[in-house]
Amino acid sequence: MRPAAPLPHRVPRTPTRRRAAAVLSAVLSGLALVGFGPGAPAGAADFPRQPIQIVVPFTPGGNTDLLARILGEKLQAKFGETVTVVNRPGGGTNIGAAAVASARPDGYTLLIGPPASYVVNQFIYPSMPFNQDTAFEPISLIAKFPNVMVTAPSTGITSIQDLITKAKADPGKLNYASAGIGAASHLSGALFNQMAGIDTVHVPYKGTSQSLQDLVAGRVSYTIDNLGPIYPFIQSGQLIALGVSTKEPVGIIPKVPPIATVLPGYELSSWNVLAAPAGTPKEIVALLSRECAAILKMPDVAEKMRAFGSEPVGGTPAETAAFLKSERTRWEAAVKAARIKPEDFK
Questions:
Q1: InterPro entries annotated for this entry (predicted)?
Q2: Which end of the chain has the lower number of beta carbons within 10 A, N or C?
Q3: Model's pTM, two decimal places?
Q4: Three-state DSSP class for 60?
């Protein structure tokens, strides 16, 4: 699989309608560089007959990028056509997602993205360059990423209930780290605060790796973030796992209880969905979904995915669409709990 060079493009963090239109125009003007553009959809009978591009709305190296490359390698082996990963970061994933939303609906341009790309950003940004509810044909739920609540031993916090008790005893004293305003870790913490009835201070960072440094040092009290990058710190004893964000315990940390055992109904985990532009022929969408299902059942693929904290899922286009609909409600509630304002992004 041949990786493509990232195509950097900056987007204002507080888009107005005019700015959002400008962003979309800029995205469209650059689509020719990576083979996007208008045109009639190709037929499904002989798909694929040209290279496929999987757009990742992040820089290389993260969980979504790793999944794209695993999928791309297997799809390339199956189809005999080049599958290229194109990294288009920026705008809280809006740059990459907008590029795919406006691409030719023929199955040759796909998006693999997190909740922000499909359901979350419509509740955060005052205007969007595409409609998240109608812009895509869902193909498959590729993976789920359990979140884990962790703290440093130096905090003296030993359980979820202990954290809640300490927070209620001294409102505003504890704080929680996130990978940035609007990130899944921010929304997870905000929803936890709301459901627990506590007041702790949000401390946004420019990524999980930066927040982990301060967590280990005890400069921030806790976080609820993706298990993958945190797991080595749990293994080493530098951080204590208090709870997971899933309904059931997670395989690699089976003794850590779900947060829902203390806060019934709490469930908020990140995930990645593969999708095509709206209007892509149903036969192509179904074919890609079947191939993804087969790939996700391969033992070597599952092993690679679990190594960085993701769980292979799969699902038909209809099942994936229903999943996105259910997640829309869940994440809207989390965004409301976070009370994010446009000026927060300045």
A1: BUG (IPR005064), Bug_dom1 (IPR042100)
A2: C
A3: 0.79
A4: coil
From 309, 312, 285, select the one nearest 301 (Cα to Cα). Answer: 312
What is the third-level CATH fold of 147-261? D-Maltodextrin-Binding Protein; domain 2 (3.40.190)
CATH 3.40.50.300: does it fit domain 17-145+270-345?
no
Cα 27 from Cα 74, distance rounded (Å): 29
- 108 and 42 in contact (C-beta within 8 Å)? yes
68-76: long-range pairs with CB below 8 Å, 24+: 68/112, 69/1, 69/3, 70/295, 70/301, 70/304, 70/305, 71/112, 71/142, 71/274, 71/292, 71/295, 72/1, 73/1, 74/295, 74/298, 74/301, 75/291, 75/295, 76/1
The DSSP call for residue 262 is T
* Token representation of residue 346: 């300045």
Q: Where are the beta strands (DSSP E) in 48-135?
A: 52-56, 83-87, 109-113
Report which of 140, 61, 127 is spatially closest to residue 94, judged by C-alpha positions: 127
Strands (E) located in the chain? 52-56, 83-87, 109-113, 136-145, 147-151, 175-178, 201-204, 222-226, 240-244, 270-277, 311-312
Residue-wise pLDDT for 269-307, tens only, equals 899 999 999 999 999 999 999 999 999 999 999 999 988
